[in-house]
Amino acid sequence: MSRTERAGFPLLAAFCALPFLVIALPLRAQVFVVEAEHVEKHYTEFAPTHVKYPEQPMTQLGREELIRFMQSEQGFAMRPLPIANLTLHANGHMDPTGEKYVEELHQKGMSVKAGDRVVVTDIRIREKTIELDLNGGPEHKHKYLRHIAIGGGGMETPLAADDGTPPTGVRLILLFEERVPDLNGEQLQGLLKPMIDFGVKSPAEAFAETLPDFLRKAIEQHRVLVGMDRDMVVFAKGQPMRKVRETGADGKPVEIWIYGESPQPVEMIWFEGSFAMRVQLAKVGEPIQERSENEMGDYWGNQPVVAKNQHEVKLGDSTDADRTQENAPRAAPTLRKPGEELPADDDKDKPVGSMQPVKMPPDLQRPGDPGYKPTVSAKPQDSGSQGSGSQPAGSGSQPQSGSNSNSGQSQTSPPPNPPANPN
Question: Which of 97, 242, 297, 389 has a CB 3.0–4.6 Å from the CB of 258, allowing a cystine?
Answer without folding.
Answer: 242
